Amino acid sequence: MKETVLKEFEKVFGDTEGVKVFFAPGRVNLIGEHTDYNGGHVFPCALTIGTYAAARMRNDRKLRFYSMNFEQLGVIESSLDGLKPEKEADWTNYPKGVMWAFGERGFEIPQGMDILLNGNIPNGSGLSSSASVEVLTGAILRDFFGFQVSNQDLALIGQFSENKFNGVNCGIMDQFAIAMGKKDHAIFLDTSDLSYTYAPVKLQGAKIVIACSNKKRGLGDSKYNERRSECETALAELQKVVDIKSLGELSEEQFEEYKSAIKDETRVRRAKHAVYENQRTLKAVKALEANDIAQFGQLMNASHVSLRDDYEVTGIELDTLVEEAWKVPGVIGSRMTGAGFGGCTVSIVEDDAIDTFKKQVGEAYLAKIGYAADFYVVEIGDGPVVL
Ligand code: GLA
Predict the structure, then answer these.
(1) What percent of the chain has pLDDT over 90?
(2) Which atom of ligand 1 is the closest one to the Cα of 173?
(3) Domain range spanning residue 22?
(4) Could you read off the pLDDT of 227-245 as tens digits, one per residue?
(5) Which of 200, 218, 248 is the last residue of a domain?
(6) Half-sphere exposure of residue 5, counting CA atoms within 13 Å on the CB side?
(7) In a shared domain, residues 183 and 269
(8) Catalytic annotation on 174?
(9) Residue of 36, 90, 143, 174 marked catalytic
(10) What is the pLDDT of residues 274-308, one digit of tens each?
């Protein structure tokens, strides 16, 4: 891949003098969905697929971007002066947002850049191609300009840029999983204080299989922000009867005791998901530690049911992929992953059932939805690197 991006860089920008190549992964969340903006726990991991960049400094303040994934857009130009989100800037609003966010943190970017990207994460798939680009941009800026920032800072700056520059009120999970990724480990992160531990993912003769629905969506046009504000309203209602800072502080029993304070049936279900999903995540991490993969899988399945019925972020595409997966012998667990409304599912599938899984789920999906799903057997990888 290094050769590919260098070659393309030369074609697009003339030569490769001063160019360095970088990589940042994508991520998949194993369990703990829509808990990260509710002060709960998440359990994601970085992948070995992600985004590659070839980049160099310029002697002026110009920014030139090119993506091999959006060749039709050609070179998109901008400037370090007056960085602001623009519709016609398309995907470059992500790297531009990170440059702006560094500036807000007091890190002045002294020189413009030429940046070429090539990602092997399916776009809009829910494997965080945008967070990957954000962390990647941060890693490039840190390397070229010597900014003293940790990988955790790269995650926070990426999230800040997405919230304030790109207008999506996402939590910290995606950027954190990508910036802090560790090969063969998932990250057990408490989003209330950012404390975390790494848990080895030993699947004993099974693999992580991603099924991509190919239903395109971006968080911006989804109901993501709406769910977030429903949870905030439910929290405010609960705070009238119980002293909590976030939904993640409640046990299932406490939720049942206090839930009548929430004055709307829909909001009760939204908050219930946030509370129960957080508890499921705690149980799932314990199950994995105890090598109880079957229990881990059951909790993944229960997570999907809750996201489908209470949080209502699945949709026919994701439900079809998951419900068909549950029918295949050798599937240990299957659920939607990421924000939902399209994107991907994550399944743990025994090695000798993977071919049947792809065939059976793929055929049923095509028959019902009318277009094909894509399947990827993935591996857990490290955070951002200079190649
Ligand atoms: C998106 C957001 C994350 C998280 C998930 C849902 O991926 O970027 O912060 O909220 O949705 O778990």
Answers:
(1) 94
(2) 9
(3) 2-200
(4) 999 999 999 999 999 999 9
(5) 200
(6) 25
(7) no
(8) yes
(9) 174
(10) 999 999 999 999 999 999 999 999 999 999 999 99
